[in-house]
Design goal:
The protein has about 180 residues and is an alpha/beta fold. The chain is about 10% helix and about 10% strand. The protein contains 3 helices and 6 strands, in the order H-E-E-H-E-E-E-H-E.
């Protein structure tokens, strides 16, 4: 037996029904769509159409407010989790990722929940005030990574008045 001699079993492959090919085909004239009506038309109906009923996408409530595209998302580490490191250790982003306390690719923020009984040098992108105080109370130090946020000059709510343009007063011509 060769590849060109292979054939599928009889009855396993059925020919596609060709519709709209005359009355003798059995699927001519209306092509299986019946008489008139919405489903007989060529356009049919759009995706999500529910027959005149209010569609699901319009029925469900929409959330108020907005999503801030500039929101900072931090990996949070509590100071109670820093107990596992020895005294005098420099705890930075790499050490926290290796210990499984933070995921790579995120900035790290240290929070003050829990108790700290070790003297550590902690480096992170942000600290809560309570975490900073707890670390420094045990003789450790805190280092903020990255650039501090720059703020522009504050703008006044009311418009500043512009100085009036100086105009020269015209003098009447001298009479001769």
């Amino acid at each position: 037996m060769r590849l060109h001699e292979l054939t599928p079993p009889a009855g396993s492959r059925k020919r596609r029904q060709r519709i709209g090919r005359g009355t003798g085909s059995g699927r001519g004239k209306t092509s299986g769509r019946g008489q008139k009506g919405q489903n007989a038309r060529s356009e049919g109906f759009r995706l999500g159409f529910e027959g005149g009923q209010m569609p699901l996408a319009q029925r469900i409530p929409k959330l108020p407010g907005f999503k801030n595209p500039f929101k900072k998302i931090y990996e949070v580490v509590n100071i109670s989790k820093l107990q596992r490191f020895e005294d005098g250790t420099t705890v930075d982003a790499e050490v926290l990722i290796d210990a499984g306390l933070a995921r790579p690719g995120f900035e790290i923020k240290v929070l003050g929940t829990g108790d700290l009984r070790r003297k550590l040098i902690v480096e992170a992108h942000a600290f809560s005030n309570s975490a900073r105080e707890a670390i420094e109370a045990k003789g450790g130090s805190v280092k903020v990574l990255g650039q501090p946020r720059q703020r522009g000059p504050k703008r006044s709510r009311k418009k500043e008045s512009r100085p009036a343009a100086v105009t020269e007063e015209s003098t009447p011509p001298a009479e001769a």
